[in-house]
Amino acid sequence: MGKKKRRKRNETERRSSEAWIEKAQQSIWHPFTQMKEWEKEVPTIITRGEGVYLFDIEGKRYLDGVSSLWVNLHGHRKKEIDAALIDQIQRISHSTLLGLTNLPAIDLADRLLKIAPPGLTKVFYSDNGSTAVEVAIKLAFGYWQRKGGIERKKKKFISFKSAYHGDTIGAVSVGGIDLFHHAYEPLLFETVKVAPPTCYRCPLSLAYPSCGIACLEEVEKTIKRHRSELAGLIIEPLVQAAAGMLTAPPGYLKRIRELCHRYDLLMIADEVATGFGRTGKMFACEHEGVTPDLIALSKGITGGYLPLAATLAVQPIYDAYLGEYEEFKTFFHGHSYTGNPLGCAAAVANLKIFEKEKVLARIQPKIAFLKEQLDRWKQWDHVGEIRQVGLMVGIELVADKPEKTPYPPEWRVGAQVCRGAKERGVLLRPLGNVIVLMPPLSINIRELKRLLAVVGEEIQRVTSRIK
Predict the structure, then answer these.
(1) pLDDT tens profile 206-229
(2) Edge-to-edge strand order for the sheet containing 120-126?
(3) Which structural domains are found in the chain, ordered by start?
């Protein structure tokens, strides 16, 4: 679109912004949003994006500090992904994967298996992170049921407190954030919960590394106690993202893999948030040389363009579902838009960008710069802990630093910081009193400096005012 046409369209949108705002307030129910409060707000209506920036209906520009909820990788309106979608639309936008296939789905599956941890051999498509996890849970459960005999007792899953794996019932069952999940407890299947490796508030009152990762001993004891009934273990590798960017100590993930192997349960890695370069490697499991039995992928898979997900499995799981028609070993699961050609075309273009632009190598200086700058903030009175893995960052703000005392929720400290940043042209979304930074991988150093300057100043402004 030419500049003159775009300018005219933008002017038309601004003139009608009041009507759009009224419609938005009347019709949309927003996710994870208290609508009683929202109804009093003037909604920000995003109309376009360019690089790491978003623009609202009034023409105001915002730096996208959380990648439009952790999905955008290479910036908005990336020409290679735009072109791939236009090309695919001119061919076909959707056909079912039930009994048919399509070229983008084939190409993407081949590419995913080539970059995934070694040993994963099959790709099952779905629509989003929750469904990718649901697929993994059902595949793991079905694997043991199809093996038969005593193995059919293996029906439960071990998962971590404060975990988040999505919002569908199966994903909620293996989740562990009470604020999100407790209300649905009557609907959930039973799981075995263990404490996560949260070093900042260690439940064992120990300190890393002198602790020797003692929390793993409790995990092993729990696995031993329930060994005969456990089908699998699900984990967010390295980072429990929605819990507040809680990070595991080095070596923890590898030892979890060893425990799963030793006690014969399937390991599911939920890389929905951590996948596709966020941690500095393509997948978080690579940091410790881990191959899970199942891996759930979504969010960044299409570069932040379209809903798509994939669950990758090792060959023995796939083989367990093979049989004669009348044996009914089929994996009876699917989605209308499974393997959608548009989504897969966007994902193929996304992976080509990683290769062509050497994205993983180019983000290393950005990761180092971010760490260097954030290290200075650790001295601030109300910064309890800064947790960083790659370009995933959680800054936990506390009322009392020595005691690690959280701010009362009603003070809404995290929300205050993000509101102030938004007024200054930076879009963030907090996790309680944890300020999340997860910019697009394409952000440059100058833009990172701007992001850090605004966020740092807002943290100091808000925390100094409420001492």
Answers:
(1) 889 899 899 999 999 999 999 999
(2) 120-126, 309-314, 294-297, 266-270, 230-235, 156-160, 192-194
(3) 44-74+361-465 (3.90.1150.10), 83-356 (3.40.640.10)
